[in-house]
Amino acid sequence: MGEITIIGAGMMGSALCWPLSDNHHAVRLVGTFLDEEIISACQSTGIHPKLQRRLPQGVIPFSYQQMPEALRGAEVIVSGVSSFGVDWFARTVGPFLKPAVPVIAVTKGLEDQPNGDLHILPVVTNDRLPEDLKDQISLNAIGGPCISHELAARRHTGVIFCGKELQELQKLQNIFATNYYHIRLSIDVTGVEVCAALKNAYALGVGLAMGMMDQQGPDGLANMYNPQAALFAQSCLEMRRLLHITDGGVENVSWLPGAGDLFVTVFGGRTMRLGRLLGQGLSFYEARQRLAGETLESVEIITRVARALPKLAARGITRLEDFPLLLHLDQIINHGKVVNIPWNDFFLEA
Amino acid sequence: MGEITIIGAGMMGSALCWPLSDNHHAVRLVGTFLDEEIISACQSTGIHPKLQRRLPQGVIPFSYQQMPEALRGAEVIVSGVSSFGVDWFARTVGPFLKPAVPVIAVTKGLEDQPNGDLHILPVVTNDRLPEDLKDQISLNAIGGPCISHELAARRHTGVIFCGKELQELQKLQNIFATNYYHIRLSIDVTGVEVCAALKNAYALGVGLAMGMMDQQGPDGLANMYNPQAALFAQSCLEMRRLLHITDGGVENVSWLPGAGDLFVTVFGGRTMRLGRLLGQGLSFYEARQRLAGETLESVEIITRVARALPKLAARGITRLEDFPLLLHLDQIINHGKVVNIPWNDFFLEA
């Protein structure tokens, strides 16, 4: 049982302490420069302040100033940074990486290139590594439906580990899998990672339906699942089209990485809260103020994909009319529009 | 604006009165022999007792004894019977059908044949029609996520009308579509209908996770989405495999008919209530007693598919290990087993 180093003490990176500890690994949980409060709370109380739970046995919290020490001799390095931290990770942690030590990331995102191409984060990370380490590091990632609080509560969770090498993935599976953390493997890194990023965008779209109900007022029914389900279905359809563009496998939509992860994200937290506020009729400016301090990866991914699509359409790779929901979300977030779901543009040419 | 006759005054058939009335059609809502109480309540109060809502303008309730009169001159006939009523419909309504009058059904189900083949209900209905009408009647069906209460509340709802002839479907779309009832068309009748049936089976599977949480007791977290999402993902995967067997298009899983309809059914009512009771540890016998009087189509579809699979496997058409969730549900329902999710058998070979 070796040493595992987790870089980033946010909720998802930290939640991996539980399966790792249950498998008797020594875990070094290293905060980034943004995580100083979390780490000092962990050090003084033993309780992770965001997960509100005592860190399990064998987990030692480290400040980012102790990072070199915390990385020494690690068998696996986990990247627990958000999509905003990918540059930082490549620049700061990059020089410590070694070809024999696999990296596995919980980070979700896509980066649009000047020509409209959408790059998944393992590709982005590799591009930013020190020159001598490029294409030398095993960069893997985790997709699939997992709310960090629930993983830390040891609830049954099904995820996908994806990477280029099946053997490397099997090694990682052996290290992380428990009787509640169910890991399956995929070498379709693009397919899994595109879904992992997009689910944040589309969960915001499904969230609009909840806000629309709040705004409309009671009509004698407690729930509002038909509109949510219609938005869920249109989300799956647009995800399928984006997989097609990016050469990811479209079958990813119809199990853990796509529909499964979208399901959890719809109910999971800040993305839904933002969607609900927008659906109630707040402007994005007002909604963002209400959620001050929250990392809004959904906004970032919507913006990036919406910026890429016209370029991809101009290159003949796709058509704008295939993405009415995503483009409406972009209008709301970046162009001051109010919610007005373009139902007539939905569900065309499945 | 012609006359539309709906046969069956259950919730889903009756909910179609709202878009039809909004399109200024005259609607004849005809109860089956099981719906006498509903019809007499509608006739005396104007309120549909199951939907708890006043029937909209232009809808006239008819007893089944008045059926010949209610069918006379109908432009379209809607079959609103449950899957248990397909024989009755073919035998009783069949003789009144005419080649020029399309039928559209809300009924969901699959019928297993002695050799294991699974037949969709439009095929079953056609087989049971009077000899001279076989293959002469346009038999269409509705799939996609729609809770009847919400349709009657005129909430945005996205559905698929499926049938063999696109022109016929366009005619039906013109009759039913409103600014809240969004209809898309598909000539993949098998794909849509297999999803429509299976979602009832798999919603029961997702429901188990809720009951498992109830049984386990509080652990500080209100929700339990990771296990639900994992079951949702496995459901989508098994639906995809069943579409493959039945020659339905697998892409149906990743929009309205599959993931969309499963989403709504998970939250929608009796199927979830049954799953939750089973997840709490009740035997199927006990759970069924608690739900006395409810039509349990989920149980029927699980039983039929589980009966077909070994025959299909013996014929080399599929493998039993591809359906661990469905076969576990069958064990619970038909063989007295308690819930014990076979996680290790899930998510293999996506």
Short description:
Chain A is α/β, with parallel strands linked by helices.
Report on this model:
The structure is a homodimer of 350-residue chains. Chain A has 350 residues and is an alpha/beta fold. Helices cover 48% and strands 14% of the residues of chain A. Chain A has 15 helices and 12 strands. Chain A has helices at residues 11-15, 17-22, 36-45, 67-71, 86-93, 121-128, 148-152, 166-176, 189-216, 225-246, 256-268, 270-279, 284-290, 297-314, 324-334, and strands at 3-7, 26-30, 47-48, 53-54, 59-62, 76-79, 103-105, 110-112, 118-120, 139-143, 157-162, 181-186. In chain A, the strands form 3 sheets. The first copy, chain A, has an 8-stranded mixed beta sheet with strand order 5-2-1-6-7-10-11-12, sandwiched between helices. In chain A, β8 (110-112) and β9 form a beta hairpin. In chain A, α5 runs parallel beside α6 and α9 packs antiparallel against α10 (225-246). The model of chain A has no long low-confidence stretch (mean pLDDT 94). The interface between A and B is large, with 59 and 59 residues.
Number of helices, counting only DSSP H or I runs of 4 residues or more of chain A: 15
**What does the main sheet of chain A amount to?**
8 strands, mixed
Work out the number of β strands of chain A: 12
Overall mean confidence score, pLDDT of chain A: 94
**What are the segments of chain A in which pLDDT stays under 50 over at least 5 consecutive residues?**
none
**What Rg of chain A do the Cα atoms give?**
20 Å
Task: Please indicate the percent range of residues of chain A in DSSP E strands (runs of 2 or more).
Answer: 5-15%
Termini of chain A, distance in Å?
48 Å
What order do the helices and strands of chain A follow?
EHHEHEEEHEHEEEHEHEHEHHHHHHH
Structural class of chain A: alpha/beta
What proportion of the residues of chain A is helical, as a percent range?
A: 40-55%
The general outline of chain A is: globular
- What is the spatial order of strands in the main beta sheet of chain A? 5-2-1-6-7-10-11-12
Oligomer: homodimer
Largest interface: A-B, 59 and 59 residues
